[in-house]
């Protein structure tokens, strides 16, 4: 339940990030990434927000997708490019990694993507960044296109929420001491999606879990 607080620490070492996050959260974020990936149709044009070392983008490229992916951590992008270079054939040509924050999303073309994906990123954004990013998601998706998220949110149920908030505090303090930053569970994601003009289709979250897999789409009519 608390593992997502420590992600900021794991991000400092992109080459071992996937392996260590697996160890810390017992494979839950890997499973969430797979759940996101499974909702993307083969051959889609995809934009990934906060791609980290590019694991999800590579899996999508192996299914014929073309992926534009960006991340605000230069070392993550270097790792993503290096690992893409190891892919067989011309798969790397389907992957475009950019060192950039969400504040640069205005560069992407309106209506250009079948899907936008983002895993374990929204909880690292400020409220303004999240609203800005979701606004651009609604702009860059084609009509009917999908937004697929794995996102840290408060657990469901009052007791679980209170316990989570209490237990989280020391982990947040530790992460702040080491990295000068932390994650924040996204509190009002349903409102944020609606505010951006996106329609929520599915919200999947296990009891007691702070990780949700969320599916939304850009409506056919504006
Ligand atoms: C916990 S990692 C998740 C990486 C990958 N998506 C995954 O599922 O493993 C969060 C990523 O979001 C990136 N990030 C944080 N704030 C960002 C921002 N404002 N713009 C773009 N990327 C950002 C971080 O650099 C980091 O690589």
Question: Can you put this structure into words, describing what you see?
Answer:
This protein is of the alpha/beta class and 222 residues long. It has a seven-stranded mixed beta sheet with strand order 3-2-1-4-5-7-6, with helices on both faces. β6 (199-204) and β7 form a beta hairpin. The protein has a single domain (3-217), classed as Vaccinia Virus protein VP39 (Rossmann fold, 3-Layer(aba) Sandwich), CATH 3.40.50.150. 40% of the residues lie in helices and 22% in strands. The protein is built from eight helices and seven strands, in the order αααβαβαββαβααββ. S-adenosylmethionine binds at residues 7, 11, 29, 33, 50-52, 71-73, 76, 101-102, 119-121, 124-125, 129.
């Amino acid at each position: 339940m608390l593992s997502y607080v420590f992600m900021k620490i794991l991000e400092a070492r992109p080459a071992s990030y996937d392996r260590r996050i697996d160890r810390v959260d017992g494979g839950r974020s890997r499973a969430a990434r797979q759940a996101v990936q499974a909702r993307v149709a083969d051959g889609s044009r995809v934009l990934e927000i906060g791609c980290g070392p590019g694991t999800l983008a590579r899996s999508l490229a192996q299914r014929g997708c073309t992926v534009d992916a960006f991340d605000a951590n230069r070392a993550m992008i270097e790792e993503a490019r290096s690992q893409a270079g190891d892919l067989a054939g011309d798969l790397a040509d389907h992957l475009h990694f950019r060192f950039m924050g969400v504040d640069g999303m205005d560069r992407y073309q309106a209506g250009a993507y079948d899907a936008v994906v983002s895993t374990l990123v929204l909880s690292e954004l400020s409220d303004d960044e999240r609203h800005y990013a979701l606004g651009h998601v609604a702009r860059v998706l084609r009509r009917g296109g999908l937004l697929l998220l794995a996102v840290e949110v408060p657990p469901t149920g009052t007791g679980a929420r209170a316990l989570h908030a209490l237990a989280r505090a020391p982990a947040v303090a530790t992460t702040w001491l080491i990295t000068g930053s932390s994650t924040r569970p996204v509190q009002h994601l349903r409102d944020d999606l609606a505010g951006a003009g996106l329609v929520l289709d599915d919200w999947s979250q296990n009891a007691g879990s702070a990780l949700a897999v969320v599916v939304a789409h850009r409506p056919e009519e504006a």
